[in-house]
Structures are given as structure tokens and as C-alpha cells.
Amino acid sequence: MTYTxxxxxxxxxxxxxxxxxxxxxxxxxxxxxxxMAVMLVFFFIVNxxxxxxxxxxxxxxxxxxxxxxxIPVEDFAYMYALITPTIVxxxxxxxxxxxxxxxxxxxxxxx
Amino acid sequence: xxxxxxxxxxxxxxxxxxxxxxxxxxxxxHSLREAFLATGIVALPFLIWDVVVTTxxxxxxxxxxxxxxxxxxxxxxxxxxxxxVPLAAILVWDTTGYFLKR
Lengths: 111, 102
Prior knowledge:
Chain A is mainly alpha-helical. Helices cover 68% and strands 6% of the residues of chain A. Chain B has a two-stranded antiparallel sheet with strand order 2-3.
């Protein structure tokens, strides 16, 4: 399998974890997209350096070759697939501790 | 000095977390156990993925910008990435919660 194929599977699994498995449904919150927008800024800096110098070098056989500046498009899905389950698990475990999974994340929101 | 590049990048990424994880305004202060658990649970499959595809040649790491200390076949900086980045993300997540609640 290529990086492209694996990262698509990982991103789908991340979405399923949030919507179906743990039902945290964070992707439906406005807060989640504000969070992602902030993360995107840091992602451009850190991944820009990693792929720009480059610290990490990708095989042309593993990726599509589409890049945003120096960053392979696959890395955007990678960031999503890494960060989303982290936040989902973090909120889910906090919810189990306090009681009320989604409510806690909702209360942290502006509502 | 170039070989410290990746390490320095990870240290700078971790810095805000180190300064703010006990901040009185963030839920993180009472949820460090959850933060580290979530990080660890997600890091495991990503590290396995990384080890396998580094061997398969999907990507490789520059000897110029890394220390040359490997864990299995990953630079120690790359391993730290899966601890540092999720913790930094949790800090951003908590911080967005704080600003939206204000």
C-alpha cells in the first residue's frame, strides 16, 4: 500500500471513532473547526520545516506528488488522523470520569 | 549544530505545554492523566505504522538534521513527535475551549 492509501484509511477510522465508536461527535462542533484552523497554522510551520529542509524525505512511489508548498497533501490527512483521535479520546475519557460525554465538550464550547 | 534541528523543533513545540499545563484556566490541569493516556493510545498505532513504512521506504529521515540515535528504525526525535504533537494539540484544544467560553 502507498502512503496515500494508508492515510485515507487512517482518516476514515479517525472519523468513525468520533462519530460511531465513541460518539463524541466533536467534528460537529464549531469549536472543533476553530481548533483545526489553529492547528493548521502550527502544522504549516512545523511540517513546512520538516518537509522543506527536508528532515523527512518521501518516496515518489508512496505519494501522489501533490504538494502545498513543500507539504505533500497526504500530510494534511495525516495531521487530521493523528490529532482527531487524540482529542476524541481525551474528551471521551474526561466525560467518563465526570459523566456526560458530549455535554462536557459542549459546555466547554460557547453555548 | 544542524543535527539538533528536528530535536529543537520538537522542544519548541512542547514548550507551550510545559508552561501552561497547570494553568488555572484550563481543564487540562485536572485531566493530565487523560491527556497522557489519549496521547499514548494514539501514539502506539502511529509508531507501528511509522516503523513499518520506514522499512518499506515510504519515507526516510535526513541524517543531517537528526542526532543519529534510533529506536528500532526511527530517529528518537521522530518517536518524540508522537508524544509532543498530541500534547501540544490538547493544549490548543483546551485553549480554544477557554476562549470560546469567555
